[in-house]
Every structure is written in structure tokens, then in C-alpha cells.
Design goal:
Rossmann fold; 6 helices
């Protein structure tokens, strides 16, 4: 069975990746789907003066659940089994580490489809994962309008 990691952040880009994985499943692919959301760490010591560790953990959990909601709804409506996970860390690093630790066979990421100078100026989690991951990565870009 192919273990697929689908990082999601609630965006249309992420939803395209989920739709791609649903199509794999519908085409009789034996897949074990892992939806994955990464919440950014709050490194400021000042924030910790005003927010308890429990409050921060609850906030991250709530944000992660909200960002996973659309992808979970898509998979549930399609009748596709999956597991979901929420982690905290630098996004690309956390995706790569999770894939390695869990023996993921493929990462499927939604991409905004920018190229050239816009890509260089803006950077991209997808680009970073693609560059650094030992696991094969599939980028799902938006369709080009005719």
C-alpha cells in the first residue's frame, strides 16, 4: 500500500492536492492517506508571558482542525479513508521529518503555479520540500486557462 502524505493549510492549492489523491483512490490505487497540517511555532518569549502553554496548545489544535476541515470534508464526501495529524514547526522541515519518520512513500502538495521571478521573490514551501525531500513529491498546479 502506498503511504501518501498530503500537507494541507485550508487553501485552494491544498484542496487540489486532496482532489488528486481522491482520484488516485477512485482509480483503484491502494493508498494510505495522511492529511497533515503544520502550525508555526511562536518563538517570542514575550507571548509566553501572556499566554499559557495550554492556551497555546489549544489555539494550535483549533487552528489545525480548522485548516484540515475542507480537506477532511472532501475525503469524507468521497468515502475515502484517511488519518489526520497536526504538528508544530517550520513547515517544510516538519513535512520532511514526518515523511521520513512515518515511512511515507510520496508527498502530494498543492502548488500555486508561479514561475520565474515571482517564485524567486516569494519562495515556496512546495519548492523547499521538493528540493530537500528524499521522498518523491508530486506537485499539483492549477490548470492553465485556455
Amino acid at each position: 500500500m502506498l503511504k501518501i502524505l498530503v500537507p494541507v493549510d485550508g487553501s485552494e492549492n491544498a484542496n487540489r492536492a486532496v482532489a488528486h489523491v481522491i482520484n488516485l483512490y477512485r482509480n483503484n490505487a491502494q493508498v494510505d492517506i495522511h492529511l497533515f497540517n503544520v502550525q508555526l511555532p511562536i518563538d517570542s518569549g514575550h507571548a509566553r508571558l501572556f499566554v499559557s502553554a495550554d492556551e497555546l496548545e489549544n489555539y494550535r489544535r483549533e487552528e489545525g482542525i480548522a485548516e484540515l476541515a475542507g480537506a477532511r470534508r472532501m475525503l469524507d464526501e468521497a468515502g475515502v479513508p484517511y488519518t489526520h495529524h497536526i504538528a508544530v514547526g517550520r513547515v517544510a522541515d516538519t513535512i520532511i521529518r514526518y515523511a521520513k519518520e512515518r515511512g511515507i512513500d510520496k508527498i502530494v502538495l498543492g502548488s500555486h503555479g508561479r514561475t520565474g521571478l515571482m517564485q524567486v521573490l516569494l519562495g515556496s514551501v512546495a519548492q523547499e520540500v521538493l528540493k530537500r525531500s528524499d521522498v518523491p513529491v508530486t506537485l499539483v498546479k492549477p490548470a492553465i486557462a485556455p
